[in-house]
Design brief:
alpha+beta, Lipocalin, eight-stranded antiparallel β-sheet, 2 helices, 8 strands
Length: 128
């Protein structure tokens, strides 16, 4: 009985240390109509120019039964003065963590932030 308790304690500590090493500072900011939750990683916020913000966004689709993936991680570029955004990187994952697709864009297509959209909520959060 004591051996099982010690093994459980060691496993719990090991998991805690492992997750701390890869911890993200995720900030929830929206849920869409299909149940996907949206977060941004506050540790990844960068301001490469005066009016531009770059940040990693995470989409948790674990409750969304309309999609075949589980998670999407996007690196976004937001132009605060023009109210536009573009994707620098998109990585889509299965439920087991394997990558379905990964794309990088050196020159992202910038799109308008549509009022009331999840990206507009992020824009309002990150832009002054």
């Amino acid at each position: 009985m004591i051996i099982k308790a010690v093994k459980l304690l060691i496993a719990t500590i090991g998991l805690g240390l492992g997750s701390a090493a890869i911890a993200e500072d995720l900030v929830y900011y929206a849920t869409d109509a299909t149940g996907t939750d949206y977060y941004f990683d506050a540790e990844t916020i960068r301001i490469p120019t005066v009016n531009t913000v770059e940040v990693w966004q995470i989409q948790d689709a674990s409750k969304d039964k309309t999609v075949s993936y589980r998670t999407v991680k996007n690196k976004l570029r937001i132009n605060c003065s023009e109210e536009t955004f573009g994707f620098l990187s998109i990585v889509t994952y299965r439920a087991d963590g394997t990558v379905i697709r990964a794309d990088d864009y050196k020159y992202p297509t910038m799109r308008s932030t549509v009022p009331g959209s999840t990206i507009n909520t992020l824009f309002k959060t990150l832009c002054p």
